[in-house]
Amino acid sequence: MPEIPSKPEKTVEEIAEEAGLYTVDAYHFVGAGLSYTVQKLKGDIKDPDASRHITGQELSEGLREFALMQWGMLARTVLSRWNVHRTEDFGRIVFLLVENGWLSKTEQDNEADFKHVFDFDAAFGPDYRIEGKP
């Protein structure tokens, strides 16, 4: 059962500033990418008691897809500007949001779920092709 997040005491901007690791844009990207991934994997859930939980691996893959949809071949550049260089960075952002009451987690969730999910060079590298292009 997911832990219910407490009411956030800090803004996302305050979390980003205090952590000093990533820009506030990185946190907003993860939030938007989480919504995208849940919608993609779970669909339009009508039951308020239904689980919307996804794993760290699923979220990492969803964030990769979301970044490519948003910025195409510039995805790696945008993420790098925000100091996001690997899937572990996604996990750190998620758990900073969990620790500050913005997101919830289950007892099984931990930051290690985001470790080495994919390689940024391969996922956002020069071999990336927009669908439909040769």
List the SSEs and their pairings.
Layout (H helix, E strand, L loop, with lengths): L11 H8 L4 H19 L13 H16 L3 H7 L5 H13 L20 H4 L11
What does this structure look like?
There is one protein chain. The chain contains six helices and no strands. By secondary structure, the chain is mainly alpha-helical. The chain is globular. The protein has one domain (12-123).
Brief descriptors of the model:
6 helices, 134 residues, mainly alpha, globular, 50% helix
Shape: globular
Number of helices: 6
Taking pLDDT < 50 over at least 5 consecutive residues as the criterion, the unreliable ranges are none
> What distance separates the N and C termini?
45 Å
What is the succession of H and E elements? Answer: HHHHHH
**Biggest β-sheet strands, sense, barrel:** none
As a percent range, the share of helical residues equals: 40-55%
Summarize the structure.
This protein is an all-alpha fold and 134 residues long. The protein has helices at residues 12-19, 24-42, 56-71, 75-81, 87-99, 120-123.
